[in-house]
Amino acid sequence: MERKAFLRTLGAGAAFALTFPSIQGCSKDGNGGENPVPEGVDFTIDLNSAEGANLQNNGDFILKNDVVVVKNLEGNFVAASQICSHQQTDQVRFIAENGGFFRCFTHGSEFDQNGTPLNTITSNPLKIFNTELNGNILRVFD
Ligand code: FES
């Protein structure tokens, strides 16, 4: 009788030990790579700073606060979420080809500079932020 009780206890404990990590595993898998799309974005970049030096040439871009800040091929500043609208990985980058567009390197979603999807991987638009240039200070904001 005592042995049965012991085995029952062990069984429940073992079941718990086996179940709990697998729940954690599923949760981790389900959220793996998912990041919130940046909200309340409002920052500046001094174009004369070391950071700004990386935005001197048309086609240059930098990553800051989960935003891809771009000097496009026409020399205008545009900014998009680095967090993809497909499955929220942070793999969106600017591609300085074919007029300039955004690509997420996770599954290959592409977006124009207005955030409109260019292929069928997702129909969700990419979040685009406002930019404003005052002298050498570039402001990026929601
Ligand atoms: S998460 Fe970007 S294309 Fe799938």
UniProtKB/TrEMBL annotation:
Pfam families in UniProt: Rieske
Lineage of origin: Bacteria, Pseudomonadati, Bacteroidota, Flavobacteriia, Flavobacteriales
UniProt domain Rieske: residue ranges: 47-140
The keyword Transferase belongs to this UniProt entry's keyword annotation: no
Full protein name: Rieske (2Fe-2S) protein
Gene3D superfamilies per UniProt: Rieske [2Fe-2S] iron-sulphur domain (2.102.10.10)
SUPFAM superfamilies reported for this sequence: ISP domain (SSF50022)
UniProt keyword Chloroplast, yes or no: no
UniProt KW keywords: 2Fe-2S, Iron, Iron-sulfur, Metal-binding
